[in-house]
Every structure is written in structure tokens, then in C-alpha cells.
Design brief:
Elements (H helix, E strand, L loop, with lengths): L2 H22 L11 H31 L3 H33 L4 H33 L1
Length: about 140
């Protein structure tokens, strides 16, 4: 496979977890986050999302570096680094809100929902940026 083919394959691999999350996360808008199994399932989905984007981003970064495209390697590397950093930070904040909710804080559910929206927005922005870069990857 050529370097161009590897680069496009790396983009596709990165788009799989992002696309899945883009389609699956809005379903949780239809349920209340004061139900413990729902919030634990959503937490697990965020955890898996950040982990998979980190791994796919590392693979993509290495692939673009090998293909001799440093600008794309840096861009995908930034996405991987953001996902790696966000995983720990986001899950700590999520767990704090779960504890607050379980302790009786009524505003914790609203903060969980806001975090949910923020996670979906961040993923959507990154997905759009990657999809928008496909013509540049293919033509370079």
C-alpha cells in the first residue's frame, strides 16, 4: 500500500470511534441522568470513546509521520493528546458529579447533562475537522 493509502486508512480508522460516538451519544439525551445505571453506561461510553480516539490517534500520527506528512501528523497527534488528557480530566469531573448527585445535590444532574453536551460538541468539532481534511490528505 502506498503512503497515500496508509494516510487515508489512518483517517478512516480514526473516524470509526468518533463516528460511533457521534451517533450513539445523542440517544442519552432521551433519558434522565438521575438514573444510576444510565449515568454509569454513559460514563463507560465516554471512557471507551476517549481511549479509542487516543489509540487511533497514535496510530494515525505514526502513519502520517511515516508517510512524510508532518502537518497532518501534528494535527492528528493533537487530537490524540487531547483525547488522552480529556479522558482523565473528564472522568474525574464526571465521577465528582455522580458523587454529588448521590449525596443529594439536585444541580449535579444538570452539570452531568452539560458535560454530556460538551463531550458531544467536542467530538463533533473534531469529526468535522477530520472529514474536512480528507480532500487535502487525498490530494497531497
Amino acid at each position: 500500500m502506498t503512503a497515500d493509502g496508509l494516510a487515508l486508512a489512518a483517517i478512516v480508522i480514526l473516524l470509526f470511534p468518533m463516528g460511533y460516538f457521534l451517533l450513539a451519544a445523542p440517544a442519552f439525551l432521551l433519558v434522565k441522568l438521575d438514573i444510576p445505571p444510565v449515568t454509569l453506561l454513559l460514563r463507560g461510553m465516554f471512557n471507551a470513546h476517549f481511549l479509542m480516539v487516543s489509540i487511533a490517534g497514535i496510530i494515525g500520527t505514526l502513519t502520517f509521520a511515516i508517510a512524510g506528512r508532518p502537518v497532518f501528523a501534528i494535527g492528528i497527534g493533537l487530537i490524540a493528546a487531547f483525547a488522552f488528557w480529556s479522558r482523565g480530566s473528564f472522568l474525574r469531573r464526571w465521577d465528582a458529579q455522580l458523587s454529588a448527585r448521590d449525596a443529594g445535590d439536585k444541580c449535579a444532574v444538570r452539570r452531568l447533562r452539560r458535560m454530556h453536551w460538551g463531550g458531544m460538541l467536542g467530538n463533533a468539532i473534531q469529526t468535522v475537522a477530520i472529514v474536512a481534511s480528507i480532500p487535502y490528505v487525498a490530494s497531497a
